[in-house]
Design a protein that fits this description.
Blueprint: E1 11-14, E2 30-36, E3 42-48, H1 49-62, H2 67-74, H3 78-90
Helix pairs in contact: 1-3, 2-3
Length: 104
């Protein structure tokens, strides 16, 4: 495989550079993944990076990482972790752990 070939299931991030003609939500960064559809044909799957970040933050939280550890792992600011956690909770991505206190 040469440098110009993209392997199936290879995940890529696409970011647009500044330009006066590029603006708004149409140029927000996204992830693109080349995979197979249900008929075995190659197909691109696209999703916003913000959605991906929310899912990754939720997963790392479930694994027990602190907000600081998540920020370091994903190379984002701690406030972005907090914001992503709120969005993940609103989307139902976080499972609440309920601690039961036994009677003494």
């Amino acid at each position: 495989m040469d440098a110009n070939t993209i392997a199936l299931d290879d995940l890529r991030e696409i970011h647009f550079e500044k330009s006066r003609q590029l603006c708004g939500t149409h140029v927000e960064p996204y992830e693109a993944q080349l995979s197979h559809d249900h008929q075995g044909r190659s197909a691109w799957t696209l999703r916003a990076i913000a959605d991906s970040t929310i899912e990754r933050v939720a997963k790392l939280t479930q694994e027990g990482l602190s907000q600081k550890e998540i920020a370091d792992e994903l190379h984002i600011h701690k406030s972005n972790v907090s914001r992503s956690l709120r969005k993940a909770e609103a989307q139902g991505l976080l499972k609440r752990k309920i601690l039961l206190v036994g009677s003494v």
